[in-house]
Automatic annotation (TrEMBL):
One of its GO terms (cellular component) is ribonucleoprotein complex. Belongs to the universal ribosomal protein uL18 family. GO terms for molecular function: 5S rRNA binding; structural constituent of ribosome. The keyword Ribosomal protein applies. It comes from the Eukaryota. This is Large ribosomal subunit protein uL18c. It comes from Asparagus officinalis (Garden asparagus). The keyword Signal does not apply. SUPFAM superfamilies: Translational machinery components. GO terms for biological process: translation.
Length: 174
């Protein structure tokens, strides 16, 4: 008998009653005393897990921007002044949301602004003031005096505040 168990061609057969014991939880505890320690998942029990909500700064900014966009809308009479700030550049657009059309734009990538300032660590408050002045001048050329300010989910502080103040000083009304 020992030789038959160790041979590679030997197989173990089980009766169908052993499978029926494993399928019902009542039979398992009576047939196997250690089965009470096993956790057997219930088939219809709701399973859920609690996870911490990890959001990045970018996701938080995007959520703030979506909340702002629900309230701020650009019209032909009062277009939206939209600001985007990256680590290297600052972009501003005046947008008519009814036509989905950009009326004017200014950024730190434009030659007059990029040649005037030598900034290697990104735009500073002085650069933001220059961009605000440039967008106000571009809007004045197109006959736009009133805009709705969309800060893009960024805090109204630092570069965003300097840009808005410079645009106001040069004729835009928020």
């Amino acid at each position: 008998m020992l030789a038959s168990l160790s041979s590679p061609s030997s197989t173990i057969t089980t009766s169908p009653s052993a499978f029926s014991l494993l399928s019902s939880s009542k039979s398992i505890s009576s047939a196997f005393p250690f089965a009470q320690r096993l956790s057997i998942p219930k088939p219809n029990a709701p399973s859920f897990s609690i996870e911490a909500k990890a959001t990045t700064r970018q996701e938080s900014r995007t959520a703030r921007h979506q909340r702002i966009r629900k309230k701020v809308e650009g019209t032909p009479e009062r277009p939206r002044l939209c600001v985007f700030r990256s680590n290297k550049h600052l972009y501003v657009q005046v947008i008519d949301d009814t036509k989905m059309h950009t009326l004017a734009s200014a950024s730190t990538m434009q030659k007059p602004i990029s040649e005037e300032f030598d900034y290697s660590a990104g735009p500073t408050i002085e650069v933001a003031k220059k961009v605000g002045e440039a967008i106000a001048k571009a809007c004045a050329d197109k006959g736009i005096t009133k805009v709705a300010f969309d800060r893009g989910g960024y805090p109204y502080h630092g570069r965003i505040e300097a840009l808005a103040a410079a645009a106001r000083e040069h004729g835009l009304q928020f």
